[in-house]
Amino acid sequence: xxxxxxxxxxxxxxxxxxxxxxxxxxxxxxxxxxxxxxxxxxxxxxxxxxxxxxxxxxxxxxxxxxxxxxxxxxxxxxxxxxxxxxxxxxxxxxxxxxxxxxxxxxxxxxxxxxxxxxxxxxxxxxxxxxxxxxxxxxxxxxxxxxxxxxxxxxxxxxxxxxxxxxxxxxxxxxxxxxxxxxxxxxxxxxxxxxxxxxxxxxxxxxxxxxxxxxxxxxxxxxxxxxxxxxxxxxxxxxxxxxxxxxxxxxxxxxxxxxxxxxxxxxxxxxxxxxxxx
Length: 277
Fold this sequence. Notes:
- The protein contains 8 helices and 11 strands.
- By secondary structure, the chain is α/β, with parallel strands linked by helices.
- Strand 9 (215-222) and strand 10 (227-233) form a beta hairpin.
- Helix 3 packs parallel to helix 4.
- The model has no long low-confidence stretch (mean pLDDT 91).
């Protein structure tokens, strides 16, 4: 009986093993980290997290307070960072007392070390726009750029305030869902993120390069409390859509690929001809 029992057990275990091997592997949920520069309580971030949590695994890691205009600044070398953790019904959130890049970094590393690595980082929904060379100053883009250090694709998502007031966040969430599908299928090149800007009553969508700076500081006006900058903003150039500034100001949603590598590759041969070595 013992011999028969052992044979049966071996047969049963082998059958179970074959069944497991024949079953299709269950893919892990697509994990999206949502961050921003306007603070963890910003309505745009909350709307995006709630919308995407219906279809994806969501984690939120954002600055504890508004940190707009901090570009890719970091407090990495200033000692320990305070983080407030909160578990909501739909996702885990981390309020990071630091810059937008600090918040994105914390979320990426915390999730990686917990065994649930991030597949995509989305920074937004930012109220307003980040177009042209002024994007270099944007904390929204700085947070997205942080993902590129870890070879994670990223999107910076910006929505015009008038568009949000008139129609809510639907235009932004619908477009980003389409982009998520395309990124999952095709990927993005190493070191590249997408900067998306949605105007009010968008006429269409254009994939365009970064344009020039959109502000000019004419002078600084002395006041009782300091010096106030006299700022002039760019205006639309009719029928010119060759870059994100012109396209956006003419009413088009712009999608611009940005690189973390700032090297002016075409100038390298010229500099080498100077024989500075």
